[in-house]
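Why predict the complex rather than its parts? Because the way molecules touch one another can change local conformation, and only a joint prediction can capture that. The input here totals 630 residues.
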Amino acid sequence: MSGSEPLGTEKIYFREAIARAMREAMREDPRIFVMGQDVGAFGGSYREFDGLFAEFGAARVRDMPVAEAAMVGIGVGAAAAGYRPLVSITYMDFMMLGFDPLINYGAKLRYKTGGQLTAPVVVKTTAGAKGQGVAHSQCIEAWLMSVPGLRVVAPSTAADAYGLLKAALREDGPVVFVDHKRLFPIAGAVPLAETTLPIGRAAICRSGTDLTITTHSYMTRVAMEAASLLQSEGLSVEVIDLRTLAPLDIETIVSSVKTTGALLTLEEGQVTCGVGVEVIARVHERLGLIPAARVGALPAPISSNPVLEPACLPDASRVVVAARNLLKNRIC
Amino acid sequence: MLIRGFETALARRPDHGFQLLSSGEEAVAVGLCAALRDQDQLLTGGRSIGPALARGLDPKRVMAELLGKISGTNRGKGGRGHLADPAAGFFGAHAVVGGNISIAAGVALSMQMSGTNGVAVILFGDGAFGAGALHEVLNIAASWRLPLLFVCNNNQLSVSTPRSTALAPKNLSDIGLAFGMPSWTVDGMDVEMVASAAQRAVEGVRAGNGPGFLEFVSWRFASHSTTARETRSRAELEEIRGRCPIARQAEALMAAGLMDEREHVSLKHEVADAVAAALAFADESGYPDPDEVLVDVW
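Output of the joint prediction:
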């Protein structure tokens, strides 16, 4: 694309990274198929399934009626019976309709059958706000972190989306793959070689010594922006992209906080019972009461109103203010 | 007879927690399973003891499972409402009402995609009939012509709520017609009628005609669960128990000269022995080690 990407990589959009991961995985494993609304010739609401229908046909790229509960249930059932479906739920808000088969059946299947059956299904869904209002904008991945038997990944880059999706399709139990509306049109360098990225490993996106920020998905970009702003104030911030929320890579986080001595968590969802609460609690269990703070959406529904949506969501300036306050308190 | 004897013995145990019994509904389980082959998979709601035994699961391992023992079909972890033995053609029970319907469609899809000649059968109660999952799956199964047979065991009561106050269709099988499926409502207290209806429906699905819908009208002899209050009067229950499908079949066989009293008594002894062996097996088995709590989570 630009010609400036690192050797052995190609620069592609996040949505293209998803399509590439699916294409490679489907060529390699005939048990993998896609089901969801508008995934066929349309190529997905964000064109993240572009080209799959043409290559693999209607039997492996299945358009579905608007029936999320049945979609997830059929995916989980086909997985239990030996296939490896990816079920696409257009917006994460609608996952609530599919929670019963995913949580009550899929996540518990291996356990409740004493290991006789498992459900290797990937539920891919799109979180995040982009002007679509109160029922099309939510980030509810924290709700899923407490479900035993469920993996949750939420990448922030094209390369991680590619590698984690391929890894998710090889897992032996259910994985929720969370992408983000505002990440789809962002390009990044993805290895040309066919690879996977292990689930359960965070990435240190930027090294620093004064403060650790943990985050995931689109908010990683906000954290990086905030870290640059704080750098100009003389504060050195380490940014950790969690990438996988369940299981959490607590070792990477603890190791960072041991160095920096302060922890700020950032997420686009609610802070109450959010991802940050879990990160802080686990760090406190390991390191004692180090200074910590949470940044997330305000406790309100996310309106499509052009003033109210940004007013609700975390941005770099809010992260900067929270970081300053946290570090000021520590020094006092 | 085995199902009745098994459930009666289980219900007498002080240590069974609570159970979802299907006494009175044996003809549905037995007649339906008579129509299934090895390559077929049966999925059910929580009221699953009868269907599991009728499908041929080992009564010893079923009893052990229901009493929480490690030698159970599910290593004691599923318990009531979650019996499973997919190798025996019983993909499993699932105790969320209506929750197994979409799963069964997934199993049917896997059979369709892999080109096996199998049929997936989902057995659910009238309690699940009102659930949205059924209506979503009916549509998809019909559109995709899945090898899936919907079987509604209409035992008239969703815990305490009579079917007549909760569900609108005159016959519950009418809903299948709206999706273009062959659909039948059949007396679920007559095992021969159940078996012939099931045979016809299963073979239609197996032939590639797409899904079918069967409603069996049955009567539950006991309350919803062994700890739930009975809402019907003593007189009403006595009348219902008079419709016993097992007695009805025994009388029919004897009247037709296909079974004599000696054979009937011998069958009763066989059942008593099998139930006693199941209980003995379960009692000799241990509970899971507490460390088992974290095994097979992922």
